[in-house]
Q: What sequence folds into this?
């Protein structure tokens, strides 16, 4: 299978990065798999649609902003996650009609194999008390280190999420815990249920180190690979994706 590496970690305009992702997903070729990598350079909260159902969500959004975070809503996943320079967003994009569970398992095995050089093994399954809880969380010693989500447009599939590489996970978790208290949401967050790769490996890590582990593993599972050049994409499609994303954002968050 042909591989394409979409390393977008150097981009600072995350709306542009999201538009690239949307465009690539909608225009996937047969027998092709894409490794997508992103990294926010500033503090951001990516909210889920389920967050918007809380009684006082507007107060919660203002709370996030008061703490210096920009706020957006994503098209996959249901709850708030923190994005900052210590978080790596990664995903695999490919065509498939397999069940959701099989696709998450594929991501799990890929990720586990990629991170083996760090001397860790990820567990697979929900971590109660972690923020953005999901059936397909990745964890170490019952502490969530990565959250996953899936998006499909027909059989074009994106499966990925965030992985906490470095940074103050306690602070991130307390921020989101306070949001749910303010909004009077039923969800509660236990900051002790989340961690980072650096904390669990007791190694000096960086976004680049983990990114390169993903790229190395990706090259193993593909017959060939090229790097995506966003400038070579159809710019009209990029602009259309930007508009879709902006419309979705303004519908929920002013």
A:
């Amino acid at each position: 299978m042909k591989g394409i590496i979409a390393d977008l970690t150097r981009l600072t305009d995350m709306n542009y990065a999201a538009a690239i992702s949307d465009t690539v997903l909608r225009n996937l070729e047969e027998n092709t798999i894409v490794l997508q990598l992103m990294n926010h350079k500033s503090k951001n909260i990516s909210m889920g649609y389920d967050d918007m159902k809380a009684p006082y969500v507007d107060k919660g959004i203002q709370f996030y902003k008061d703490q210096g975070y920009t706020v957006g809503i994503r098209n996959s996943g249901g709850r708030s996650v923190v994005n900052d320079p210590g978080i790596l967003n990664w995903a695999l994009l490919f065509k498939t009609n397999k069940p959701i569970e099989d696709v998450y398992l594929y991501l799990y095995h890929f990720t586990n194999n990629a991170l083996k050089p760090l001397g860790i093994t990820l567990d697979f399954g929900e971590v109660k008390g972690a923020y953005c809880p999901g059936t397909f969380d990745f964890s170490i010693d019952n502490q969530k280190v990565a959250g996953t989500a899936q998006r499909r447009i027909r059989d074009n599939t994106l499966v990925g999420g965030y992985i906490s590489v470095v940074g103050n996970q306690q602070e991130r978790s307390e921020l989101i815990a306070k949001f749910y208290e303010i909004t009077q949401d039923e969800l509660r967050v236990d900051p002790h249920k989340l961690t980072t790769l650096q904390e669990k490996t007791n190694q000096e890590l960086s976004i680049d180190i983990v990114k390169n582990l993903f790229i190395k593993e990706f090259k193993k599972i593909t017959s060939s690979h090229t790097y995506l050049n966003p400038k070579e994409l159809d710019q009209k499609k990029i602009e259309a994706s930007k508009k879709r994303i902006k419309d979705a954002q303004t519908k929920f968050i002013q």
